[in-house]
TrEMBL record:
Residues 1-15 form the signal peptide. GO terms for molecular function: structural constituent of chitin-based larval cuticle. Keywords: Cuticle, Signal. Pfam families: Chitin_bind_4. The keyword RNA-binding does not apply. This is Uncharacterized protein. PANTHER family: CUTICLE PROTEIN, CUTICULAR PROTEIN 47EF, ISOFORM C-RELATED. InterPro entries: CHIT_BIND_RR_consensus (IPR031311), Cuticle_Struct_Prot (IPR050468), Insect_cuticle (IPR000618). The keyword Metal-binding does not apply. One of its GO terms (cellular component) is chitin-based extracellular matrix. It comes from the Eukaryota.
Length: 135
């Protein structure tokens, strides 16, 4: 039994990281502003030395949810700055940025079919979850 415990301890010691600690760089905070009014409204804004920025404004939403809107940015490896704006509310998280891929435009025939569907819905047409018309 003692041999098994000793073998386990030896395995842990051998598996432990060896050598020097990684070289971590401490990044300073350039600005940090935080406000909380206590009624569900808040905002914060911060920036770091290496170019990371974020500002967020929050406010009460429907059904006790917290809605937020804001922006954040950070430097990319190629020197450009990645910038995003967002809204988070009852409709979900909605980010916007030039870096978010966009789908190609819909073909004209699909646009026309969607118009027809809208017209049918306005006339009271309904479909089941399999796409079959039920009225």
């Amino acid at each position: 039994m003692k041999l098994i415990v000793f073998a386990c301890l030896a395995a842990v010691a051998i598996a432990a990281p060896q050598g020097t600690k990684p070289d971590y760089k401490i990044i300073g905070i350039v600005s940090d502003v935080r406000e909380d009014t206590g009624d569900g409204n808040f905002r914060y804004d911060f920036e770091t030395e290496n170019g990371i920025r974020q500002n967020v404004k929050g406010y009460p939403g429907a059904s006790g949810a917290v809605n937020m809107e804001g922006a954040f940015s950070f430097p990319l490896d190629d020197g450009r700055q990645a910038a995003f704006t967002f809204t988070a509310d009852e409709n979900g998280y909605q980010p916007e940025s030039d870096l978010i891929p966009q789908p190609p435009p819909l073909p004209e025939h699909v646009v026309e079919l969607l118009k027809i569907v809208d017209q049918l819905k306005a006339q009271g047409a309904k479909w089941d979850d399999q796409g079959e018309r039920i009225d």
